[in-house]
Amino acid sequence: MSRTITVDTTQPYDVTIGTGLIEPAVASIPEAAVRVLVVHAAPLAAMAEILRARIEASGRTAILAEVPDAESGKSAEVASFLWQVLGKSDFTRTDVIIGLGGGAVTDLAGFVASTWLRGVGVIQMPTTVLAMVDAAIGGKTGINTAEGKNLVGTFHEPLAVWCDLDTLANLPVHDRVAGLAEVVKGGFIADTVILDLVEQHAAALSAPELDPATLDVLEELIARKVQVKATVVAADLKESFQREILNYGHTFGHAIEYTERYQWRHGSAVAVGMVFAAELAHLAGRLDEASVERHRSILESLGLPTTYPGDRWDALSTAMRRDKKTRGDLLRFVVLQGIGNPVRLEGPDPALLLGAYDAVSSAPVSGGTISLG
Ligand SMILES: NC(=O)c1ccc[n+]([C@@H]2O[C@H](COP(=O)([O-])OP(=O)(O)OC[C@H]3O[C@@H](n4cnc5c(N)ncnc54)[C@H](O)[C@@H]3O)[C@@H](O)[C@H]2O)c1
Ligand SMILES: O=C(O)C(=O)C[C@@H](O)[C@H](O)[C@H](O)COP(=O)(O)O
Ligand SMILES: [Zn+2]
């Protein structure tokens, strides 16, 4: 059994969540495609071979491109390597790219698809919780540069998204939990039932092995977060306004990833980023203490981090200035005016930012300045 959520943009597409989805995924490749490039990293090599066999059985040429794993794949060098593969394969506008993997691979595959011949089709086959609930949906693609996270990218919507839950069987628990951070984000910004479900099942959701009942809970959480994302991107694909709510926790979260040279998982960084945003909202008089504590308790119950060392302000503030929500010298944050009600906070007093940093610091804040100009 599978469930389908349609992302109702100008060219609507389906996100299918279920098991045994390789066959239908291959069947969804447009008739006109004669070549299919499967982009994957080493942990998905075996599944990529299965996909190759199915694609070739459908009468097409399959090309597999293995890229460096995780964040190391999201670079201009790797994109350039894929452009070379596409060029040497005579890849045309009717051919199709498949992104098979976690969010790093789906971001990269989407980016390359959007730039090759000014845009070819991409089908996303996410294999982490995070990619299923977030990265593979909505058309944001991106690579990192030496100066920061996702600084180069495009909006390029997929033809279809196939979330095959079978692939999660081998996903390490820390990656499952990191993905749950983006699920929890969906709870704080929109669907508060997500928060209730996580609170009820946190221990089982973050256990090394998932029991069948918890797998059902996970599927429900995935579907709820997919629905949150689908609704938001259908309303505002290019992030003119409403889509910014999906960036909850990301201003500080991306700054952590940059400061840590991408050695932190995205979901873990976003977890700390949400606590930072909650503390900022509290200091700005928008969120009560109990809601801030709810952030900490939910995230910690899953084993996610909620603190960060207090001596890294200079690097963090440099990275936050480069956030895509920044306008000129004005930093902008997504904060909550109560749980489920995200709003924009523009140009907060630097003292508030330092106060929020102090509140998430695992040791007292030291060094750095509070100047963000
Ligand atoms: N485009 C968007 O809207 C969007 C949204 C959220 C996150 N992102 C991006 O997604 C990335 C994070 O994604 P992620 O958390 O999936 O990390 P990831 O892609 O780095 O994957 C984490 C690890 O899990 C491995 N893996 C993937 N599937 C597996 C499986 N089924 N079994 C075993 N191992 C598997 C990967 O190879 C990698 O080592 C970040 O780059 C982030 O910026 C993008
Ligand atoms: O889809 C969106 O919009 C998001 O902001 C989702 C985020 O979870 C995701 O990490 C996204 O890639 C961040 O976007 P960015 O524009 O800040 O790079
Ligand atoms: Zn994210």
Structure in words:
The protein contains 13 helices and eleven strands. It has helices at 22-27, 45-57, 76-88, 103-115, 129-135, 173-189, 193-205, 212-235, 250-259, 266-283, 289-301, 313-321, 350-360, and strands at 2-7, 13-18, 35-41, 61-67, 96-101, 121-126, 140-145, 148-155, 160-164, 332-336, 342-346. Strand 10 and strand 11 form a beta hairpin. The termini are far apart.
Main traits of this protein?
alpha/beta; 18% strand; disordered C terminus; binds nicotinamide-adenine-dinucleotide; two-stranded antiparallel sheet; 373 residues; 7-stranded mixed sheet; binds the ligand O=C(O)C(=O)C[C@@H](O)[C@H](O)[C@H](O)COP(=O)(O)O; binds zinc ion
What is the H-and-E element order?
EEHEHEHEHEHEEEHHHHHHHEEH
Distinct ligands, ions and cofactors found in the model: nicotinamide-adenine-dinucleotide, ligand LNCXM5UN, zinc ion
Task: Summarize the biggest pleated sheet.
Answer: 7 strands, mixed
pLDDT averaged residue by residue:
96
Task: Compute the number of helices.
Answer: 13
Gap from first CA to last CA:
54 Å
Strand content: 15-25%
User: How many DSSP E strands?
Assistant: 11
Give the oligomeric state: single chain
Tell me the helix content: 40-55%
Radius of gyration: 20 Å
